[in-house]
Design brief:
It is built from eleven helices and nine strands. By secondary structure, it is an alpha/beta fold. The chain is globular. Bound molecules: phosphoric acid mono(formamide)ester. The site of phosphoric acid mono(formamide)ester has 10 residues, from helix 2.
């Protein structure tokens, strides 16, 4: 089956997931982002690559980092940005997702940036646009359910490449609620495509996905074992709704077994970096001494997110 995010020439038409995207496209996005990092350092940060284009941010789920950095990125590309206020939109009166999209299309939308609690919602919009011949309108998935968060995956790869230079000799450990994490899924697909030889997931059995074994990923229940010799540690947010339920006993118990403390971090390589997509739960999955420590690159991830989102949007817009 053809990949719905690529056109017949194999070029990126929508960004829906990192699964199935070839290495040269991922590398091209990261290289393009590098050029935008230097733009961010200039006094005049704007470039005219999307002048006259309208980007609609449709966030049906809460967000701080993703929504804001998409808005900054679009503005730096000189696009007009419209943030639909979902709570006060006609969605709250029962309008369907595709009717909302059709109405925004009638307002000359050029790009939809979509976050939705339902896995597949951005795919649904992309397919609807494709079927209606609206080839000039692009969809970017800003996180759908447990499925994918491709721009987070890309900014994580950008951050790893920045600090470690080469993917081909790395051990990357992803820790916590892997089962429910769209970030973990996008990271794992990108790490595999970019040639990382050792990917580990660490967590209680209830929060790991058994199918990952078939992808060649090593699974650890013992965090001390899993962190040994790691170059990169990606901590995941523990979703509060899982705590005190069947999957996790309590926040304190989780921290005791899987919280990243300075003592545990010392088991990784001395120059290991610590990443977290945010929002962080301090004292649940990560100790403040680590989150604010020298090895944490968590705020750099946020900053690189702007350049990576500029790269994705400008490439989709045909630059
Ligand atoms: N990393 C991430 O998706 O954060 P937000 O939920 O704040 O966008």
């Amino acid at each position: 089956m053809p990949n719905p995010q690529l056109n017949s020439n194999g070029e990126l038409r929508h960004l829906l997931a990192l699964n199935g995207l070839p290495k040269d496209i991922l590398t091209y996005i990261l290289d393009t982002a590098s050029s935008f990092v230097s733009v961010s350092d200039r006094e005049v940060k704007k470039v005219p690559l999307m002048r006259g284009k309208s980007v609609f941010n449709l966030f049906f789920e809460n967000s701080t980092r993703t929504r804001t950095t998409f808005e900054i990125a679009a503005k730096r590309l000189s696009a007009d940005v419209i943030n639909l206020n979902i709570a006060s939109s006609s969605t709250s009166k029962g309008e369907s997702l595709l009717d909302t999209v059709d109405n925004l299309t009638a307002m000359s939308a050029d790009m939809f940036v979509v976050r939705h609690a339902q896995s597949g919602a951005p795919f649904l919009i992309a397919r609807h646009l494709n079927e209606n011949g609206l080839d000039h309108i692009h969809v970017v998935n800003a996180g759908d359910g447990r499925h994918a968060h491709p721009t987070q995956g890309l900014l994580d790869m950008y951050t790893i490449r920045h600090y470690k230079k080469d993917f081909s000799n790395l051990t990357v450990a992803i820790v916590g609620d892997v089962l429910h994490s769209r970030v973990a899924r996008s990271d794992i697909h990108a790490l595999k495509t970019l040639g990382v030889p050792e990917i580990r997931v660490i967590g209680p059995t209830t929060l790991l996905a058994p199918a990952m074994k078939d992808m060649g990923i090593r699974m650890f229940n013992d965090m001390n074992e899993g962190l040994k010799g790691a170059d990169v540690i990606i901590m995941l947010r523990v979703q509060n709704e899982r705590i005190n339920g069947a999957l996790l006993p309590s926040a304190q118990e989780f921290f005791k077994s899987y919280g990243l403390t300075p003592e545990r971090l010392a088991l990784a390589k001395p120059d290991a970096i610590v990443m977290h997509p945010g929002p962080m739960n301090r004292g649940v999955e990560i100790d403040s001494a680590v989150a604010d420590g020298d090895q944490a690159v968590i705020l750099s991830q946020v900053t690189y997110g702007i350049a990576v989102r500029m790269a994705v949007m400008s490439i989709l817009a045909g630059n």
